[in-house]
Amino acid sequence: MPVADQEANIPDRCRHRVGPVAVASGVTAPDADAHACIRPAPPWLARLWNGRISAMTLPGTILVRPDLLADVVAGGRPALLRHEIVHLAQWRRDGPFRFLASYLLQYASARMAGMPHDVAYRGISYERQAVAAEAGPSA
Ligand SMILES: [Zn+2]
Question: Which parts of the chain sit beneath pLDDT 70?
Fold first, then answer.
């Protein structure tokens, strides 16, 4: 099979990188995350989000609700991008095991203490840090 055909068969080559999208959004991103990929969330995940979640970040990848993707990559959602860039840096800093374990432990502890989902979620230190970054650097 010719190389071009093989490449065409790779289903998830990255079409949108954080670096150029950050520039379009007027957002500062660490150099280490410039090559991270922004891609549409798979349909099953977007259905699970049920319109309540706009994006999710995994190591090196930001998954965006498909109906928001065009706006995000055109620079129209800087707060969302700032939030997810913080999560990219957290994954990188802590590594996948520590990030996931700490994130889930904080959430589960809050839930076991009787907090409702929204409160428990917003109380996770990783989320507090990402939310604080949404507004951008203060002038
Ligand atoms: Zn978040």
Answer: 1-12, 139
Handedness of CA 78, 121, 58, 68 (dihedral sign): negative
Q: For residue 5, report the distance from its CA to the centre of ligand 1, in Å.
A: 38
For the chain, what are the domain ranges? 3-133
Ion ligand 1 nearby residues (CB, 5 A): 127, 130
Are 62 and 18 within 8 A, CB to CB? Answer: yes
Angle, CA of 113, 58 and 45, to the nearest 5°: 80
Q: Taking a C-beta distance cutoff of 8 angstroms, is the pair 59, 90 a contact? A: no
State the Rg of the chain over Cα.
Answer: 16
